Amino acid sequence: MATKERSLENAIKTKLNEREAKEFNRIYYGREEHCELELKESTLTTCDKENIDVQAYKFYGATEEARKPRLTKIGLVQHSIVLPTDKPIKDQQEAIFQKVKNIIDIAASEGVQLLCLQETWSMPFFLCTQQKSPWISFTESAESGPSVMFLRKLAAKYDMVIISPILEIEEGVWWNTVVVIGESGNIIGKHRKNHLPSAPGSSCETPFYSPGNTGHPVFETKYGRIAINICYGRHHALNWLMFRLNNAEIVFNPCATLANFGEPFWHAEARNAAIANGYFTCCLNRVGKEHFIINTEDGDNVVDRSYFGSGYISAPDGTRTPSLSTVRDGLLITVVDLNLCRQTRDRWGFIMTSRLDDYAKELKEYVK
Amino acid sequence: MATKERSLENAIKTKLNEREAKEFNRIYYGREEHCELELKESTLTTCDKENIDVQAYKFYGATEEARKPRLTKIGLVQHSIVLPTDKPIKDQQEAIFQKVKNIIDIAASEGVQLLCLQETWSMPFFLCTQQKSPWISFTESAESGPSVMFLRKLAAKYDMVIISPILEIEEGVWWNTVVVIGESGNIIGKHRKNHLPSAPGSSCETPFYSPGNTGHPVFETKYGRIAINICYGRHHALNWLMFRLNNAEIVFNPCATLANFGEPFWHAEARNAAIANGYFTCCLNRVGKEHFIINTEDGDNVVDRSYFGSGYISAPDGTRTPSLSTVRDGLLITVVDLNLCRQTRDRWGFIMTSRLDDYAKELKEYVK
């Protein structure tokens, strides 16, 4: 049942008459109608019972003579942690697995083909404690760690490609990594976070891992050419651009972003990236409150974190879906026609007019 | 008198209670209150009489120990053409001068120091006719053309820096140029549009002039370090970035953008650029309807264009003003504290974490 929560969507919902709502939607979402997809009765019942915000939309392209529509059904999942952060790590993780499995089951029953989880989905975002112990037990191998093995089974079971943001450990070194798991449970590849928050304070990630060393890979999957721009990388226009130049059609942006930093411009950044680069962007964020007690020599410190969810999908033509809930678990299902990428790029010509050779020279000069 | 017009602002205004409006504002404008500036009674009376949408806001920074606030009062002007487009060109221009002078007089009386006019402000945006004749009479010298000389006088009179987008002609070659006029009526410099719309149809500008050859200059003025990203350049992240790397504090984005192309993402692009680059962005757009009759060998063609105004200012911290009217002439006055640029850049660290040396290499590889 939708609880009354703070959000832009709730602030305007029911307040506007039909004409006003259309005008609001035309500007804010880029189209007058949301183009909702119908969901199964079983989905609605389960989500209602489990207090999961489920929403479903579509972005269709124009009909082409030479190509059929290339439809892909995307699912974005946001979920809060389950157990207190001082419980045994195994138990915390098992409880999250159970919750996420439930949501993936629902997504599968709706035919989702390409599913993305939030940043470091299988743990609390403990980095804010600025401590490595005892959290190191959450790090894992990108090929065979517990959360990866858990998802490999589900991917194979459901013929689904799953994008899984983890904390990777390789030869004792940590990385903020996303693993792309193929529809037969295979590992298609991985990508490491390119840009790390480095401001003083609890959001600093540089004590934990280095900026990624995997460049800007685009992964060929059964359901489209995808890339992942992890969290803070969304502030970096060149990060988005390189994924475009490497031919991505969908770029996922799994995040752990706090309301007091990023919420007001959450709705500008990924949407702007979709427009500028002519691909779909799928941004999703952690949700819920996380409470940490940190034992120090001087006594206990408390760190409280609150994430605002609000995942949405933007199409290359600048249209976007509404956002998921700011406080509840959520599943955003969206059918996209990948042909819309080339159609929009052809119409607007942003790459043709981008003068990249000039910029390559200018940047080279600048960094000298 | 504010007429009832279509706009997102009007769709929500008066519909939300105080709590809802605050929540809407927090997300949509980045702050709960608009922080309005009081205007003179004479300004309100004149603007009411002349049907000019006048709005005024402020963006204050934090207090610093070593630096005083560096306040600059910016004015953005949007205005429709006055005479039909088949009248003598001299008369059309003279009528626009008169209208714009009136608005600049108001801005001066409010103490505006840095004023920007819309793209090709002194003429109808005739490029949509895809004809050069008779419109060549609107082109002019960037140093001594009629619109430049007109503004040089006003700049000197009012101790104002004026940013004037014109069509420049130099040795018979056209350019889409912005002239920066100093507060003593001097010419500080000029910049030529870097990225030209090149899609087939009436929006194509490549038959008229070439992409700019002035790079990414930042102009030191009495009122701050400014740059100009002309119209279509706002779709290009690297264009915004180079102005940042060259140390701009305010980037103006004067436009001639049509509702059926750019209106829905107008509100994402310049705001996103402010966030990503840590400077103020000031986007402004032509407004009103323009009607052209084109004589061809096969008879007369008619071209109708409609611009949506909607200028706004974004601060580096992601907050923004409401938009000017979508249909009326307008003057947006905003006081900004330039110290907010460094304050935000320091807090967020986007440039420190930008890995530009890597991108310089990657781009060089790509363009090979």
Automatic annotation (TrEMBL), chains A, B:
The keyword Hydrolase applies. Keywords: Hydrolase. GO terms for biological process: beta-alanine biosynthetic process via 3-ureidopropionate. It holds the Pfam family CN_hydrolase. PROSITE patterns: CN_HYDROLASE. Transmembrane segments: none annotated. This is Beta-ureidopropionase. The lineage of its organism: Eukaryota, Metazoa, Ecdysozoa, Arthropoda, Hexapoda.
